[in-house]
Description:
With 375 residues, this protein is mainly alpha-helical. It is 65% helix and 4% strand. The chain has two domains: 2-43 and 172-374, no CATH class; 52-147, 3-Layer(aba) Sandwich (abc type-2 transporter like fold), CATH 3.40.1710.
Amino acid sequence: MKNLRHIFYLGLKEMVSLARDPVMLFLIVYAFTFAVITPSKSSVMDVRNASVAVVDEDQSEASRAVIEALRPPEFRPAKEIPFSDINRVLDRGKYTFVVDIPPDFQADLARDAEPTVQIVTDATAMSQAGRGGGYIAEIVKNTVEPFWRGQGEPEAKPLVGLETRPRFNPNLEQGWFVAINQVINNITVLAIFLTGAAVLREREHGNIEHLLVMPLRPFELMFAKVWANGLVVVAAAMASLFLVVQGVLRVPIAGSIPLFLLGLCIYLFSVTALGIMLATLVGSMPQFGLLAFPVFIVMNLLSGGQTPLESMPLVLQKAMQFVPSTHFVSFSQAVLFRNADITMVWPDMLKMFAIGSVYTVVTLSRFRKMLAAVQ
Length: 375
């Protein structure tokens, strides 16, 4: 009980120190507000408001129908340009797509001559160019069907009819995924930086020497930083889920918030220990930043949140199984997106706890050596 009391009061001291650090407070607010809203609104890869021009060499009812079909939200209203301006407008980046409708377009459709519509794309706009061409091809195909007289042989009817129905995200809104993924990533970066900064702040201000003259043990100092900074991250993450993700962005949360909170606490048990361990390897805050950023970037890019883990090399997949963020990403997506219950996600929770236990043992050893060096 005496040890628990020391850990509790030391944790309160950590919160007071954090409250007096305006830079860290700004980082917490920014990470769970603007850093969630901005990517979800602007970093999506869907085709939205793409600029498109049309060269109408037919001037028929069918060609006008194609022009009218290119409409928001996928495309801006199409602008007609002459054939001679295609290279000029693309070189200037004025349009991402130029659709060239050939002469006798409607007449060829009527006699089943299979006219060719050319789509010229500015491939420097990679996210839109990769998908927009397929969108335009599908729009043209569906628009000209009433003008095709069907004089040729009909296509063979498929033996199996496939009907696709997206679950959990019926409209395939990429911003929903980006918002949740940003919260997950920011939990990791804040947990690492808050705990690491707490250790280095005491060393740089000379507070660590004052604590060492008290009857305190290294594990009390360490666990005080873990629970205090972990509680701050939990409170900020929950506020972001309710106020920013659900409130501002209107992203529905399909799963159980209490289950996600339980998994988050287990994850913070490991990642806060990682932050303290990194802080014991350096001597100043700039050095900590240089060390922590590559660690976070690796965890962010290779944990399955940005790209599926299955698409990575097999050796990398196995190596990332020893990183807690891999299992936290899998756990969070299962709970928040797919409404998974504890019977489905308990293996991820168990792995996070096991990795956290190893991190804690190693970190405590490093922390004791750091305190011994200070003495």
